[in-house]
Amino acid sequence: MDKENKLPLWDELPTFEIYLDQLLDLANNYVYPITGEHLTRTMMHNYTKAEVIVRPRNKRYLKIHLAGAIVVSLLKSVFSLDTIKNGFQIEMEQDSAQEAYDRFVNMFNQVSKTSDSEYSGSENPNSQAAMIQYQAILSVTYHLRAIATMRKILLQTLTTPISDVKKQKNTSSESFQN
Description:
Layout: H1 20-35, H2 41-49, H3 63-75, H4 81-94, H5 97-113, H6 128-159, H7 162-176
């Protein structure tokens, strides 16, 4: 990823309603330089139909839709839509959409800034083959860690008494409305 490509924070996203074509243009301006893939109308329809991203009101999209489109576009090459949806649900139970999105963006931008020169393996760090292996290993291990953490959280949620879950949902829905 080019070090100049940064994802926008929540407050940098439009504060007004936009149409799907505008959402696609904005999302692609941020995501395409990173992934090399365009977000399409069909993809967005699939994400809302699968309830990974909340449905728009009257074909108008808000910050939450654009933020969701950006995050899903980045995660979909690594995680299934069901896994992303579960991750979003976990996030929304704990924080507002803005807090969850800004945390993701800050972490993504920070990790993206780190240099490949930070590789400290015993192999020659200047070897392109060693760098590819290192990055592939990081990708696999981080993917497996994320899945294991999500499963652990989902298991805890399933074993939490119903009264505690209702309290958490009431608290999180209040923060979501802000």
